[in-house]
Design a protein that fits this description.
Rossmann fold; alpha/beta; 12 helices; 321 residues; 434 Repressor (Amino-terminal Domain)
């Protein structure tokens, strides 16, 4: 005897099948990427319960049949924009409509965006993490989300080599270019990756090479690099490592105005603006574009049932030695 589907939802069908809601949705929408064995299992349950998906529920999505949310921290972040630009063509090619939102480093914003994506029956989400974001917030999306910039156990994450980037820059300046007084301008340690990890890597390098630290921490902005330049220059460094390309832009502007062309500026990460205005800057590439590609591929693999729960660290590379 077949049972009525009047009170059943996609969530109920998913539970009966032992799959995610997004998988049921993809079967209903005839996604060719769903495995045949999974499709047959879902269709068998749908037939058994005479389930008919609500047209209004499907229309609520409003962004097409297949949706992926992308939550960035800042829409004006050059690094995150590079990552997003590289992942979009991959999603488009597979027929997904991306929705890009901004968290502004606020947990409540992430909660709002995830709730909206859930209402739209989004298939998956890419989240650019920040200090204060707890993985428990993402528990409902665990098997259909990729987290960038931070590593969470049991989740699929794509991270940058923050420690390796600063270490490689310091070693290049100290060993290859023979700089003995290498300063550092960074971000406050409350930021766990760009701030604390990169600053600690600088401190460790100074200790390893028996040099005196000369570090000042501020904000992730051009203005911070510009404002901290005077303080760091009091100790007469011959080279200065900047934690981000934005800081490097501010520092370069200050040095240019003061005609201090003998000081070498090194930057973790680069932007087109930095390399265009100050091509002499020593840059180590964190691989933002590669991170976007890795994230997109991992997410698509997860949507095909290949759940990894691993962390990928993108290798960094000096680009203009």
């Amino acid at each position: 005897m077949r049972e009525s589907s009047n009170n059943l939802t996609i969530k109920d069908i998913a539970k009966l099948c032992g799959v995610s809601k997004s998988t049921v949705s993809r079967v209903i929408n005839h996604d060719p990427m769903v495995k045949e064995v999974t499709r047959n299992k879902v269709m068998a349950i749908i037939e058994q319960y005479q389930f008919t998906p609500s047209k209004s529920a499907r229309a609520m999505r409003g962004y097409g049949n297949k949706v992926i949310g992308i939550i960035v921290t800042r829409l004006d972040s050059m690094s995150e924009n590079q990552a997003v630009r590289s992942m979009l063509p991959i999603f488009y090619q597979r027929g997904y409509d991306p929705i890009i939102m901004e968290s502004q480093f606020k947990v409540d914003k992430v909660q709002e965006h995830l709730a909206m994506l859930n209402e739209k029956q989004a298939d998956a989400v890419v989240i650019f993490a920040f200090t204060g974001l707890d993985k428990s917030l993402l528990s409902d999306w665990k098997n259909r989300c990729v987290i960038l910039a931070r590593s969470f156990s049991e989740y699929t994450c794509v991270c940058y080599d923050d420690v390796g980037a600063v270490t490689n820059l310091f070693n290049y300046l100290h060993q290859n270019k023979k700089h003995q007084n290498i300063a550092y301008i960074g971000v406050g340690k409350q930021d766990q990756t760009t701030g604390a990890l990169r600053y600690q890597a600088y401190q460790d390098c100074c200790l390893a090479h028996h040099t005196i630290p000369n570090a000042y921490l501020g904000k992730l902005s051009y203005r911070s690099g510009y404002n901290l330049a005077e303080s760091v220059l009091k100790h007469s460094p011959s080279a200065i490592i900047c934690a981000t390309d934005a800081i490097a832009l501010g520092l370069n502007k200050y040095l240019s105005e003061k005609k201090l062309n003998h000081i070498v500026v090194a930057s973790v990460g680069h932007s087109e603006l930095l390399t265009f205005l100050f091509p002499q800057t020593v840059v180590i590439e964190l691989g933002f574009d590669k991170a976007g590609i890795y994230a997109a591929r991992e997410l698509l693999n997860m949507l095909q049932g290949k759940i990894t729960g691993r962390t990928i660290t993108v290798p960094c590379q000096l680009t203009n030695q």
